[in-house]
Design brief:
By secondary structure, the chain is α/β, with parallel strands linked by helices. Helices cover 33% and strands 25% of the residues. The strands form four sheets. A nine-stranded mixed beta sheet has the order 6-7-5-15-16-17-14-18-19, with helices on both faces. It has a six-stranded mixed beta sheet with strand order 9-3-2-13-21-20, with helices on both faces. The radius of gyration is 23 Å and the shape is globular.
C-alpha cells in the first residue's frame, strides 16, 4: 500500500493552541522572523480548554487579591515572595500586550482586558488580623503600594455594595482594595494572537490534529506523528524544537516523549463548577473581583471568589469555583486519562502525594457530594442576600496539578506552573495550573532563555526583547520610578486604570 503520510519540516512545533503556545509562537516570530512554526490543536478552535473565558478566573492573577499567594508561616509572619514574583510577571504581560496593541498585531484592547478592582475579603477576628498583616507586608513593596485596607463598614459598602447587603455593622470584617485590578479574557486574547500569527509567512496552524507519538532522533531533532481527526490523514513533522503546552494533555505527551527529565512526574486532575448569576439587576450591583480564604485542603484553583467578568462584551457575575474530581485531564478528555498516566517511574511519587494529601482528597469528596443547597450556603457567606432563583450551575475548566518526585516525601503535589526542559534544549513542557495564563509572557521568556540560550544573549534578540518588554533585565519592584512610568504607559495603551 502507498504511504500517503504528509511530511513537513519546520524549526518549531507547538502542541496545543492555548495562551502559552500563542505567546511563545509570537515572541519567537518577533525575535526571528524567518523561523518556521507549526501549531497542532486537537480541538476545532483555539483556546477552548484552560485559556477559555469560562474555564479560568480571568483575574490576570496579579496577586493583588489571591490570599493563597501569601501564606502565613508557623511564627505568624506573612511570606510575600510568591505574590511579589507573580505581580512582577503580570507587569511583564501588560508590557507585551501593550506592544502587540501598539503594533496593531492584536485588535482593540477592549476585546480582552477591562478595569475591575481586585479585593480580598475576610470575616472573623483571626482572619481580619491576618489580612491586616498581609496588607502591611505587601504595601511596603512598590508593586503593591497602591493597595488600601479597611475595616470601616461604610467604606466596605462603597467598595462592594452587593457583598455588604444584609450584613450587620458590628460584624468583624476587613478588605483590601486594588483599584488597578483587571479582568482578562484570555480566550479572546489567545484567538487574536493566533489570528495574527496565522497570517505570517512560515506559520501553519492545524486544528482537529492530534499528536499521537513523538520521539527524539539521533541528530537531536524530533519525529512527531500526527493524525487529522476529521479526515484520518496522517502527518509527520521533524522539528528542531518542540513545545508541549496542551494544558492537562501535556503530561501524557511528556510520557510519550520518554525523556529522563520527565520521569517521576504525575498529575492529579481537579474539575470545577461555577454558580453563574442570571439576574441582570444583581449583576449590575457588583463591579469587583472579591477573593476570600480557601477551605482547609482546598487546591488554589478553588479559592472562592465573587467575580465580575466581561465575556464577549457582556458583563457576567460568577461565584466559585466549586472543586470536583474527574479522571479526565481535559474538559474534552477521556476518563482513562488518569489511569493511563500511571507508569512505573511515577507510581511511587503519585502514591506518596496521595498519602500526604489526605485533607485534599477529603475536601474533594465533600465538594463532589455538595447539593444545590450546600452551594447556595457557600455563596451566601459572600452574598447574604443571594436568591437561588438568580443562579445556575455551570461546568468550568479541568486542571491537572503536578505531582513530582521528592527525596524526603517520595512525591509531592505542586500547586502552580512547572516548566520542564530537556538538557539539550530541544523539548519544553508546561505542566500545572494557575497563575499560568497571567504569567505566560514571563514563563515563555524564561523558557526561551533555557532552550535558545545562545541566541537570547545576542544583541539583536536582546534589543528586540527590550522593545517588546521595556523592563526586560530589570526588576520593577526594585525600580519604583520605572514601575510607575510603565504602569502609566501600559494603562494608556490598554485603556485601563
Amino acid at each position: 500500500m502507498p504511504d500517503n503520510t504528509i511530511r513537513s519540516s519546520s524549526d518549531v512545533v507547538l502542541i496545543g493552541a492555548g495562551i502559552m503556545s500563542a505567546t511563545l509562537g509570537l515572541i519567537l516570530k518577533e525575535l526571528q522572523p524567518d523561523i518556521k512554526i507549526e501549531i497542532y490543536e486537537r480541538l476545532d478552535v483555539a483556546a477552548a480548554e484552560s485559556s477559555d473565558a469560562w474555564n479560568n478566573a480571568g483575574t490576570g492573577h496579579s496577586a493583588f487579591c489571591e490570599l493563597n499567594y501569601t501564606p502565613e508561616k508557623p511564627d505568624g509572619s506573612i511570606d510575600p515572595k510568591k505574590a511579589v514574583s507573580i505581580a512582577e510577571s503580570f507587569e511583564i504581560s501588560r508590557q507585551f500586550w501593550s506592544y502587540l496593541v501598539q503594533q496593531n498585531k492584536v485588535p482593540s484592547p477592549e476585546n480582552f482586558i477591562k478595569s475591575v478592582p481586585h479585593m480580598s475579603f475576610v470575616w472573623g477576628e483571626k482572619n481580619v488580623e491576618y489580612l491586616k498583616k498581609r496588607f502591611e507586608i505587601l504595601q511596603s513593596n512598590p508593586i503593591f503600594s497602591e493597595m488600601t485596607f479597611s475595616t470601616d463598614f461604610q467604606k466596605l459598602k462603597e467598595w462592594m455594595p452587593l457583598v455588604m447587603e444584609g450584613r450587620e455593622e458590628g460584624e468583624k470584617l476587613a478588605a483590601t482594595h486594588m483599584e488597578i485590578g483587571t479582568d482578562v479574557n484570555f480566550g479572546a486574547l489567545t484567538r487574536s494572537m493566533f489570528n495574527y500569527l496565522e497570517k505570517l509567512d512560515g506559520v501553519q496552524l492545524f486544528f482537529n490534529h492530534e499528536v499521537k507519538k513523538l520521539r527524539q532522533r539521533e541528530d537531536k531533532s524530533w519525529r512527531i506523528k500526527i493524525k487529522d481527526l476529521s479526515t484520518g490523514q496522517k502527518r509527520k513533522a521533524y522539528p528542531k524544537f518542540v513545545f508541549i503546552g496542551a494544558g492537562g494533555g501535556s503530561l501524557p505527551l511528556l510520557e510519550k516523549a520518554n525523556v529522563p527529565e520527565g520521569h517521576g512526574y504525575g498529575g492529579f486532575p481537579v474539575s470545577g463548577q461555577w454558580l453563574k448569576c442570571t439576574n441582570p439587576e444583581v449583576i449590575a450591583k457588583h463591579q469587583a473581583k472579591v477573593y476570600g480564604k480557601a477551605s482547609v485542603g482546598a487546591p488554589p484553583m478553588s479559592v472562592p471568589h465573587i467575580d465580575t467578568r466581561v465575556i464577549d462584551g457582556e458583563k457576567a457575575l460568577l461565584f466559585g469555583p466549586f472543586a470536583g474530581f474527574s479522571t479526565r485531564f481535559l474538559k474534552n478528555g477521556s476518563y482513562l486519562d488518569l489511569p493511563l498516566s500511571i507508569k512505573t517511574n511515577n507510581l511511587i511519587p503519585m502514591l506518596s502525594a496521595g498519602y500526604h494529601n489526605i485533607p485534599l482528597t477529603k475536601y474533594l469528596i465533600e465538594q463532589v457530594r455538595q447539593s444545590p443547597k450546600d452551594r447556595m450556603k457557600a455563596l451566601r457567606e459572600y452574598l447574604p442576600s443571594a436568591r437561588s432563583k438568580d443562579w445556575v450551575l455551570e461546568r468550568a475548566g479541568q486542571r491537572v496539578q503536578v505531582i513530582k518526585k521528592d527525596e524526603k516525601e517520595g512525591g509531592v503535589l505542586e500547586f502552580g506552573t512547572e516548566v520542564i526542559s530537556t538538557h539539550d534544549g530541544t523539548l519544553a513542557v508546561l505542566l500545572g495550573a494557575s497563575p499560568g495564563a497571567s504569567t505566560a509572557v514571563a514563563i515563555m521568556i524564561d523558557l526561551i532563555g533555557r532552550c535558545f540560550g545562545g541566541q537570547i544573549k545576542t544583541p539583536e534578540w536582546e534589543a528586540k526583547l527590550k522593545e517588546m518588554i521595556p523592563s526586560y533585565g530589570k526588576t520593577l519592584n526594585d525600580n519604583p520610578e520605572l514601575l510607575a512610568e510603565l504602569r502609566k504607559y501600559t494603562a494608556e495603551v490598554l485603556k485601563i486604570k
